[in-house]
Amino acid sequence: xxxxxxxxxxxxxxxxxxxxxxxxxxxxxxxxxxxxxxxxxxxxxxxxxxxxxxxxxxxxxxxxxxxxxxxxxxxxxxxxxxxxxxxxxxxxxxxxxxxxxxxxxxxxxxxxxxxxxxxxxxxxxxxxxxxxxxxxxxxxxxxxxxxxxxxxxxxxxxxxxxxxxxxxxxxxxxxxxxxxxxxxxxxxxxxxxxxxxxxxxxxxxxxxxxxxxx
Length: 214
Hints:
Elements: H1 3-10, H2 25-30, H3 37-64, H4 69-78, H5 83-101, H6 115-125, H7 130-153, H8 157-179, H9 195-204
Helix pairs in contact: 1-7, 3-6, 3-7, 3-8, 5-6, 6-7, 7-8
Family: Belongs to the UreF family.
Subunit structure: UreD, UreF and UreG form a complex that acts as a GTP-hydrolysis-dependent molecular chaperone, activating the urease apoprotein by helping to assemble the nickel containing metallocenter of UreC. The UreE protein probably delivers the nickel.
Subcellular location: Cytoplasm
């Protein structure tokens, strides 16, 4: 295990385009569902339990066996009913691969894989384990939206990071659950959904003015 490598992969400053995405938070703020740190807490916990678990499971599975990348990619498509979210995931996957290939010899897994599949492949190329890939995926589920919340709502960044610290044990728990399923058939991997995020993403894609791509 290399903690430094894991930190590098999970670093928000990695040039993978993550800063351009709010993880579905922008439309939820516009709808009045998230207004403050408490609301952000509920949003992040919900994302961890749904999309976070799915992303972590698929990242762990891709890390365990990059030869399954195409099959995993199809499985993620089936779990992503929103076309806007599919496009966002693939855009981030493409950018992540570009960044990763500058650092490690990443195997061919397709030109535009979903972000969790790309993350798992990068983790494998970097010598990380499925558990570590799952940690990076779960961590990214919270930190990207948290950073967006500071920009969108003007929240106190210290309070937001205190929230992230409180969520760290839940990230670890989700990652452990996800990694334990890394060898499961694709159809049996987690498939938790968040319909409000799917609906919000489709509305968000029609906005003429928005701060984030998704």
